[in-house]
Amino acid sequence: MPAVINAAGRAVPTEINGKPVIPYKGVGKHKPYGNKYGPPIPSCSDFPDDGNKVVPTLEEALLRCGIRDGMTISTHHHLRDGDLISNRIFEIASVMGVKDLVWFPSASFPCNDPVIKYLENGTINRIEGSMNGPLGRFVSEGKMKGTAVLRSHGGRVQAIQDGEVKIDIAVLVAPSSDSYGNAKGTGGKSACGFLDMRKLTLCMPTR
């Protein structure tokens, strides 16, 4: 893999996971160009006439989103070390036989250790986000197929708005929502109160 010495004096690759990357040039030395990336324009024709987007299971939701090999799946971290939904996403994908997914979490926690089995069986190619606990140790030991990309919260936002990462399916977890999919932290059996929607919007699909 080609490598260069960056402004911090470290040898770094010029390509990661088949994509060219820009080595660190120093503070204020790199100026990006172009326009911010944005989500596709929604259309009512994509949904039922009554506007009700509710489906009975996560599996059906993933199927309707067209889950397939190589997609980037985004999740947020509001449930912290109680986030079992991320594990379920990849369990479903594994049963479907989907391969080489990219997991793009805003954070992961020890409760996500079951994801290791899906890294091992090829359901997930790599993680681009935070990797903690046994999951982080698994990645640090070089056992993941693809190259891990550690992203801070700010780096995640930058990658999305620059089009460096294109989210295919975003799974947002909330105690309840209306039939249009507007999530809220009040109501339901697991009401938790205020949800920071600024963070939730970082998971919006970009294509």
What topology emerges from the helices and strands here?
Elements: E1 3-5, E2 11-13, E3 15-16, E4 19-20, H1 58-64, E5 72-75, H2 85-96, E6 101-105, H3 115-120, E7 124-127, H4 133-140, H5 153-161, E8 169-171, E9 176-177, E10 183-184, H6 197-200
Parallel strand pairs: 5-6, 5-8, 6-7
Antiparallel strand pairs: 1-2, 3-4, 9-10
If you had to describe this structure to a student in words, what would you say it looks like?
This protein has 207 residues and is α/β, with parallel strands linked by helices. The protein is built from 6 helices and 10 strands. Strands 7-6-5-8 form a 4-stranded parallel β-sheet. A hairpin with a 5-residue loop joins strand 9 and strand 10 (183-184).
Ranges with pLDDT <50 over ≥5 residues?
199-204
Q: Would you report the number of β strands?
A: 10
Separation, N- and C-terminal Cα atoms: 30 Å
Largest sheet composition: 4 strands, parallel
Report strand %.
5-15%
Radius of gyration: 18 Å
What's the total helix number? 6
Structural class computed from helices and strand pairing: alpha/beta
**Helicity, in percent?**
10-25%
Shape: globular
Order of helices and strands: EEEEHEHEHEHHEEEH
How would you state the average pLDDT, rounded? 88
- Give the strand order of the largest sheet, numbering strands 1, 2, ... along the chain: 7-6-5-8
